[in-house]
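Why this split exists: single-chain examples teach little about how molecules sit against one another. For that reason, every record in the complexes split bundles all components of an assembly together and asks for one structure covering all of them. Below is a record exactly as it appears in the raw files.
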Amino acid sequence: LAKTTQPISMDSYEEQEVNITCSHNNIATNDYITWYQQFPSQGPRFIIQGYKTKVTNEVASLFIPADRKSSTLSLPRVSLSDTAVYYCLVGSYSGAGSYQLTFGKGTKLSVIP
Amino acid sequence: GAVVSQHPSRVICKSGTSVKIECRSLDFQATTMFWYRQFPKQSLMLMATSNEGSKATYEQGVEKDKFLINHASLTLSTLTVTSAHPEDSSFYICSARDTVSYEQYFGPGTRLTVT
């Protein structure tokens, strides 16, 4: 499983765009990149997933360069409720029971009024 | 969207007793479920991978005789913490992988406190 590296923490003012970059130098050909959000005392919540280039959904965008050794989660116009820990994970689908998500340390995002 | 539930959400037990935590996929089938443990201000640590109808696969350092996992159906996995001790106090989170889409969904977690 590819190891991921993220900044430990980030601060942002409300309504700013926040970009969190994750390094995954050893990503394998079959690996997808997934980002989760976690609030205190809650389970992680899926944000977005991608394989290459750019993926966008209603809450975020995910930018993945051609070499796929890093990815950037972009949160547009954050609000106080976006204060949470964000995890970047890589993993591949390879049949029943053999796909695992290994969590790194995550990035604690603090949104300031 | 797919929902994973856990029961109970919080449990307090005395040292030496056993506690069972249930993880259910409510609107999808999950051949594979995962159990994580999270200590305060730390990341999630995978404890074991649970496959329906077969024995769970435990991560290195996790005692299989202490953390009993049963995955008897495609929608239910249970984790039993046997002879619990205060150091087992933690936040236990399960996740379930949708058999069709392979998406992985997390439960809300169970806070275990052993006194």
